Automatic annotation (TrEMBL):
Enzyme class: ligase
Organism: Agromyces flavus
Protein name listed in UniProt: Tryptophan--tRNA ligase
GO biological process: tryptophanyl-tRNA aminoacylation
Recorded family membership: Belongs to the class-I aminoacyl-tRNA synthetase family.
Keyword terms of this UniProt record: Aminoacyl-tRNA synthetase, ATP-binding, Cytoplasm, Ligase, Nucleotide-binding, Protein biosynthesis
Subcellular location: Cytoplasm
Catalytic reactions of this protein: tRNA(Trp) + L-tryptophan + ATP = L-tryptophyl-tRNA(Trp) + AMP + diphosphate + H(+)
Entry GO CC: cytosol
C-alpha cells in the first residue's frame, strides 16, 4: 500500500474550514487503500511566538479533530511529531543539503517573517520547510495530501530527496503532492482574495471547526460577494461567489456547473442560506465529537502513544540508513 503522510499545526484556534476541505477530507478518503500516517506537527508550531499552555491544549484538540473528522486510528498511524525523535535528527542532516538561497526563496517564510517582524523571525522559522521534508521522507511517503499553500514546500522536499539519493545512493522515495481541485485554496469569507487562515484580519472571514453552528451560519450568510446577482463561477471577476461554490462543491460532492444551474436566476441569498445549511450539517457533528473526545484526555494520550510507537519504529529504520550513508560511525 502506498504510504501517505500529512500533518497540521496545533495552534490556539481550532482547525478551520480551509484545513478541513483542503486536506483533512482527503486524509480520510485515502485511508481505505493506502498506508496513512497523520501527524500533529507541534515542532512546527513553535516556529512563531506561542503560549505553552495553549499549545499543550491545542495538540490534543488537533488530534481529537483528526479523529472526529474520520481518521481511523486502527488504519492510520496517528501521532505527535515531538514524540518521534527522528524528525529533528533527519532535519539536521537535510539542513546540510539545503542551500541558503533555496530556503530563502520559500514564500511562506517571506510572508510569515513579514507578518511577525524581524524580532520574531527565527532560524527555526527559516528551517521550517526542512523539518517538513524530514517528516515526509522518514516514512517512504508517496503521497502528501495538502492544500495549495504547501506546494512549494513539497517541491523542496522532492529536490532534497533526489539530491540525497544522487549524492549518497538511493535512499528516499520522491513524494508527490496530492492537492484537491476545488478546495486547494479556500478563501477568507470577508476578503475573498486572501486565503482563509488563522491570522485572518476579521474573525468573520474564518470558519473554525469549533465554532458554534449558529456562528458558522451567520459567517457564511455575511460572506462578501459582489454587486451583481448572477451565480456564476468566475474566480477572477467574482472571487466571493467562486469561493462559496468551491466550498459547496467540496462539501456536497456536486459539480460547479450543476450548482450554477441550480442557482440560475436565484439570488445570492438562496445560495448562502443553502450553503450555510450543508456546511453546518457537516461541521456540527465533527465539533460535537471533538468535544466528546476532549473529555477523555487519557484515552487520546493512549492512542497517540500507540501511534508514536509505530511511527518511531519506521522512522528509526530510515534514520539509521541515512546515518550510515552519510558516513557516521555506528554507536556500539
Ligand atoms: P497548516 O497547519 O498551515 O495547514 C494544514 C493543512 O491545511 C491546508 N490549508 C488550506 N487548504 C485550503 N485552503 C486554505 N485556506 C488552507 N489553509 C490551510 C494546508 O495546505 C495544509 O495541508 N507545513 C504544514 C504542516 C506540515 C506538513 C508536514 C504537511 C508539517 N509537516 C508534512 C504535510 C506533510 C502546515 O503548516 O500546514
Amino acid at each position: 500500500r502506498p504510504v501517505v503522510f500529512s500533518g497540521m499545526q496545533p495552534s490556539g484556534d481550532s482547525l478551520h474550514l480551509g484545513n478541513y476541505l483542503g486536506a483533512l477530507v482527503n486524509w480520510v478518503a485515502l485511508q481505505d487503500d493506502h498506508d496513512p500516517i497523520y501527524c500533529v506537527v507541534d515542532l512546527h508550531a513553535i516556529t512563531v511566538p506561542q503560549d505553552p499552555a495553549v499549545l499543550h491544549e491545542a495538540t490534543r484538540r488537533t488530534a481529537a479533530q483528526y479523529l472526529a473528522a474520520g481518521v481511523d486510528p486502527e488504519r492510520a498511524t496517528l501521532f505527535v511529531q515531538s514524540h518521534v525523535l527522528a524528525h529533528t535528527e533527519l532535519a539536521w542532516v537535510l539542513g546540510t543539503l539545503t542551500g541558503f538561497g533555496e530556503a530563502s526563496r520559500m514564500t511562506q517564510f517571506k510572508d510569515k517573517s513579514a507578518r511577525y517582524g524581524a524580532e520574531a523571525t527565527t532560524v527555526g522559522l527559516f528551517t521550517y520547510p526542512v523539518l517538513m521534508a524530514s517528516d515526509i521522507l522518514l516514512y517512504g511517503t508517496q503521497l502528501v495530501p495538502v492544500g495549495d499553500d504547501q506546494r512549494q514546500h513539497l517541491e523542496l522536499t522532492r529536490d532534497l530527496a533526489a539530491r540525497f539519493n544522487s549524492r549518497f545512493g538511493e535512499t528516499f522515495v520522491v513524494p508527490e503532492a496530492l492537492i484537491p481541485k476545488e478546495s486547494a485554496r479556500i478563501y477568507d469569507l470577508q476578503e475573498p482574495n486572501t486565503k482563509m487562515s488563522k491570522s485572518a484580519s476579521s474573525p468573520n472571514g474564518l470558519v473554525n471547526l469549533m465554532d458554534d453552528p449558529k456562528v458558522i451560519a451567520k459567517k457564511i450568510k455575511s460572506a462578501v460577494t459582489d454587486n451583481e446577482r448572477e451565480v456564476r463561477y468566475d474566480p477572477q471577476a467574482k472571487p466571493g461567489i467562486a469561493n462559496l461554490l468551491d466550498i459547496y462543491a467540496t462539501v456536497t460532492g456536486r459539480t460547479i456547473p450543476e450548482l450554477e444551474a441550480e442557482y440560475d436566476g436565484r439570488g445570492y441569498g438562496d445560495l448562502k442560506k443553502d450553503l450555510a445549511e450543508v456546511v453546518v450539517d457537516r461541521v456540527a457533528p465533527i465539533r460535537a465529537r471533538t468535544l466528546e473526545l476532549m473529555e477523555d484526555p487519557a484515552e487520546l494520550d493512549r492512542l497517540l502513544a500507540m501511534g508514536a510507537e509505530k511511527a518511531a519504529e519506521r522512522a528509526d529504520r530510515t534514520l539509521a540508513t541515512v546515518y550510515e550513508r552519510v558516513g557516521f560511525l555506528r554507536r556500539r
